Amino acid sequence: MAKQGTLLVVDDNQNILTSLQYLLSEYFDRIITLGSPVTIPSLFRQESIDVVLLDMNFSSGINSGNEGLYWLREIKRLRPQTQVVLFTAYADIDLAVTGIKEGASDFVVKPWDNAKLVRTLQEAYGKTKGKRQAAAPSEQAGGSMYWGNSQAIRPLRMLVEKVSSTDANILITGENGTGKDMLAREIHRLSSRHTKPLVTVDMGAITESLFESELFGHVKGSFTDAHADRVGRFEAADGGTLFLDEIANLPYHLQAKLLTAIQKRSFIKVGSNTPQPTDIRLICATNRDLEEMVRKGEFREDLLYRINTIHLHIPSLRERREDIVPLAKRFLAQYNTQYGRALEGFEPEALRKLLDHPWYGNIRELQHTIEKAVILSEGNELKADCLQFSAAQHQPADDTHCPSDDMPIQTLDEMECSLVKKAIDQCNGNLSQAAAQLGVTRQTLYNKMKRYGI
């Protein structure tokens, strides 16, 4: 069986640590040993641990097992997905059973049987792996979160695993196409609220006149077209998660109303005078610099503090180039299934082109590129000439010079792609303003962005 997973062994007996290092190195990809549990919190901030083999007593002369139970609770608080196997003496079996009730996966009695110890730890790793697969469905599922293994993404993943189990408000930032909405869904799946609804609101798509009705709801007769009571997004998300996408597009004069609802954890429906309590976990996302907007007087500083308890920034695809090929393979599998193709992989030149491209449109652009290539490909491998990149993606955003007679003529699609990108850049990422500038609806703009991988 191939070695897999990271195991942490915590025991104050150095001989035991050495013996286990030799025994278990054949079964786990990586083994970390600690003689004291006090550095567990800092280690968890740096490493992604799958299984912990945890001794129950560390202080000399104290054999109550309470230390083990304390660190069990700390580990489950820091990283709920990590499985803990308690390492105990015969006299501590009752305490080990208590530990299982508090979240331990299993326990192993000292002196241990090698085969049983290995089997118990492998079963624990299987539970960790199963939870990850449940949290992020199969690689062929296009809507699931893909983490990757690049150095740039690891700190984000560890932070997400740590904060998802809390109710802290989270602000997600990153360029267009980096997957901010997917990260919001991943946080919800990993949270204790995962059985409750995740309600998504596109703040740029809500008209100012309907803002309060959309978010807080209204009662029948509160205005001309209010023919029945309406449930707002805050009420619909009660007990679950409310995801406010493109929070920077909320007009300044409406930000105070959102702030009030967040601060008081209650809202008032349009046409009503009765405050209604709400129990939500708030996640917001934007591709803009909110601190710069605060300095310009475009975003309320007090609202920023409220939504920014935890800040998660998704690196661009250019910063995580090691993940380009695995992502491309994932999309290849997805679109093989969707379009009934049987492409087995990429020819070497296609892989080179994927790695050389700057991917200003990030994961969304990559996904769109692979989808087109799968449709166009023939044979068993995806060929380089099927990878069609938009010329506009290679041009700097501030490139406003007029084309010369010597420049090649662009196709209509290339011209439209360039125009859409220019409008978005000029509006600083505000898609509502960009749509208005282009004379199209916001949905039409979304469709064109998807089409051109912007």
UniProtKB/TrEMBL annotation:
UniProt keyword list: ATP-binding, Nucleotide-binding, Phosphoprotein, Transcription, Transcription regulation
SUPFAM superfamilies referenced in this protein's UniProt entry, alphabetically: CheY-like, Homeodomain-like, P-loop containing nucleoside triphosphate hydrolases
Entries under PROSITE patterns matching the protein: RESPONSE_REGULATORY, SIGMA54_INTERACT_2, SIGMA54_INTERACT_4
Residue span(s) of domain Sigma-54 factor interaction: 146-375
Pfam families in the record: AAA_lid_14, HTH_8, Response_reg, Sigma54_activat
Organism superkingdom: Bacteria
Family annotation (InterPro entries): AAA+_ATPase, AAA_lid_NorR, CheY-like_superfamily, Homeodomain-like_sf, HTH_Fis, P-loop_NTPase, Sig_transdc_resp-reg_receiver, Sigma_54_int
Residues annotated as domain Response regulatory: 6-125
4-aspartylphosphate modifications at: 55
Matches recorded under PANTHER family: ALGINATE BIOSYNTHESIS TRANSCRIPTIONAL REGULATORY PROTEIN ALGB (PTHR32071:SF113), TRANSCRIPTIONAL REGULATORY PROTEIN (PTHR32071)
Official protein name in the record: Sigma-54-dependent Fis family transcriptional regulator
Annotated organism of origin: Bacteroides caecicola
The organism's taxonomic lineage, starting at the top: Bacteria, Pseudomonadati, Bacteroidota, Bacteroidia, Bacteroidales
